[in-house]
Amino acid sequence: MDRPSTPTWLGSGVGALAPLGPPSQHVEEEPRGASPVMVVGSDGKNPHPFCHRILHWAPQCNAMRFSILNLRARRAEHVVAKWDFDPSIWSPSLDLCREANQPELRRALEMALREWLICRCWAREEPVCNPSRLIDITWHTFRNDKRAEVKLRRETFRTLGRTEGGPCGADPESKAFKELIAAWKRSDVGSRKSFSAGWALDHRFGVEEPWGLRVSDVPLRVERRFLGGGGRGDPTESSVGLDYGAA
User: Fold this and answer.
1) Cα 113 from Cα 225, distance rounded (Å)
2) Into how many domains does the chain fold?
């Protein structure tokens, strides 16, 4: 019996359907451009024709998924960068550091909070660690206004996630730490600024029992982006970056 031709709806490069009959008599042609990984049929020999289509389209679907996630995160980052925070949320952190230069602390704290929220937008709903006690205090003060929190989450397309990774501890191999670094590298501000203002905020303003990232833990991970021409500047520099218009 002649082998039936490939139906036109399967498209080119998929291969012909197996004819009826015992599986041992079938010799399946290898489709052009197919992945070497094939899913065998129930007989343990012949790959199912539809599996070739799945293997062919899987990389394209995965790339499209990440493109959508990146677009949503980029739009959320722009929302966070322009968000108008209530001035009252800064007071608890400012009171904790009365001896510090208050206008300077206010500007640094606002920049650090925005950059941490931007990292959360780019973390793809994975928990990221919090690098600063001052950021943590300010964020939970902001969350006391439930209406403002719901509005921020809605306008950032719910990219902030529901879980937080806790403080950045001494373990640079923790998942929340790696997610923080990876999310920072994905962000637009992270491509122009090597070191986030919040990573050394507590040490900079003399907070007792400070959180934060050790500088020795960060450059190796950030420097890999510089090798590809993705950023500029000194990886240990904390004062270079964007000013979001803090008063």
Assistant:
1) 23
2) 1
Residue 79 lies in a domain: yes
Burial string for 18-57 (b: 16+ CB within 10 Å, else e) reads: beeeeeeeeebeebeebeeebeebeeeebbebebbbebbe
Structure tokens at 241: 């970056």
In tens digits, the chain (247 residues) has pLDDT values of 555 554 444 444 444 444 444 544 444 444 454 444 444 445 555 555 555 555 556 666 667 777 888 899 999 999 999 999 999 999 999 999 988 999 999 999 999 999 999 999 999 888 899 999 999 999 999 999 999 999 999 999 888 877 777 888 757 778 888 889 889 989 999 988 888 999 999 999 999 989 988 766 664 444 333 322 333 333 333 322 333 333 3
Q: What pTM, to 2 d.p., does this model score?
A: 0.67
Residue 95's domain comprises 59-227
**240 found inside a domain:** no
For residue 45, the one-letter residue type is: K
